[in-house]
TrEMBL record:
Protein name as catalogued: Uncharacterized protein
Domain of life: Bacteria
Organism: Microbacterium immunditiarum
Length: 257
């Protein structure tokens, strides 16, 4: 039967929407409660919706009963502090699973490449239903930072680098694309991440906000690119050697983040 997917994401796996005027909104992400939860880099997360409406970030399949990343329960204490962020996550009208704000500390390009991962959004997702993708709304003005997308984790061919100023809005099939953020600066980067179920509601939202599935990549000097490739290879080799010394095969599983 196959899953219901967004046609706009079929070709490249991502769309970039019109930029949101973030300056008009208060900095709600500074008021909500964060928990230590490591994803790709030095991170914390502030959940707005979780499996049972509790302030935690675990995959829905790790709860009882286990389920896919759909039907998230809004957390009253967080929603009260961040009503505008909640509204933005709900605006498409698509089913929401996990919804949270990520706090990412500065992350250079080579570290970002090592952190590239795929998400496990569709574990337990029944065939014939909507495919779960993720929205990324950049909240802070990280003009020199960028999102990295790859079809193959270790192959830079076709790498896409998407700028992350305040109000940048992306929707990504993060189970298809390897992804992570290069964050340049001294202050943390904040971004609202929402799991949405593909279907006509999300299709209409993408069309309403003029989603495009190809953008010009952020320019990065060649020496920085080469140094990043080398750093990724060095860290991968060190990781493989660590597991080999323990007599274990390295497994790079999908992220639950």
């Amino acid at each position: 039967m196959g899953y219901i997917k967004c046609e706009a994401l079929e070709e490249t796996g991502y769309v970039v929407l019109d930029r949101y005027n973030q300056e008009l909104d208060p900095k709600e992400w500074l008021d909500i409660e964060y928990v230590d939860w490591k994803s790709s880099g030095d991170t914390r997360f502030a959940p707005l919706a979780s499996a049972k409406g509790e302030i935690e970030c675990n995959g829905f399949w790790n709860h009882k009963p286990p389920r896919t990343d759909k039907d998230g329960v809004w957390i009253p204490s967080q929603v009260e502090k961040a009503p505008i962020l909640t509204r933005r996550a709900q605006e498409p009208g698509a089913n929401v699973g996990r919804c949270r704000v990520i706090e990412l500390q500065p992350t250079p390009y080579g570290e970002c490449l090592y952190n590239l991962h795929q998400d496990d959004n569709n574990r337990l997702n029944p065939d014939g239903t909507g495919w779960v993708v993720r929205g990324f709304f950049n909240l802070t003005d990280d003009k020199d930072s960028f999102f990295v997308l790859r079809e193959n984790r270790t192959d830079p061919e076709g790498e896409v680098r998407i700028a992350l100023p305040a109000g940048a809005q992306l929707i990504i099939d993060t189970q298809r694309l390897w992804h992570a953020a290069t964050h340049v600066g001294t202050d943390p980067r904040y971004c609202l991440i929402t799991s949405w179920t593909s279907g006509p509601e999300l299709d209409a939202y993408i069309e309403k906000h003029n989603g495009v599935n190809r953008v010009e990549s952020v320019h990065v000097p060649q020496d920085v690119l080469e140094a990043g490739y080398a750093e990724q290879a060095r860290k991968d080799a060190a990781r493989a050697a660590y597991y080999a010394a323990k007599g274990q095969a390295e497994v790079r599983a999908m992220s639950e983040a």
